[in-house]
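Internal ticket - ligand job 145, DQA:
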Amino acid sequence: MKVFVINGPNLNLLGTREPEIYGTETLEDIADRCQTRGAAYGLDVVFLQSNYEGEIVEWIQEAIGTAEAIVINAAAYTHTSVAIHDALKSFAGLKVELHISNPHLRDAFRRVSYVSPAVDAVIAGLGAGGYELVISMLAEVLRTT
Ligand code: DQA
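stdout (structure tokens):
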């Protein structure tokens, strides 16, 4: 079974980007941990990052018919992108929105998510460790459905 983990703009800067908010782990560290955790459950984790909205839309479309689940941290596009919302609506598998920080505790403009109404579950505020937790939770849900 395959899970796409899709990351949006500026998440390639993790490790040095506002470490007081996002921590010091790099995206590569997180990808490694997700792939190791996924492998333990027999899940193939495809870990992706782009600064471009259209590329994210294309990856969501690629997941259709290819993957059982999508985990998406759309980063700033969370708060702006109708295109990502629409693409997610077309994916029939399991969908989880993820944020490293809790956007509701931050700027007012981060309290709106165009992703939330298009997904099954939301996890936010657990730091970079949230990614691995989501992989474990998805493995459990996919095993029992
Ligand atoms: C984020 C929260 C967003 O508001 C922000 O634009 C990001 C990262 C998070 O993971 O906490 O880039 O999605």
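Auto-summary: The chain has a mean pLDDT of 97. The first helix runs from residue 19 to 22.
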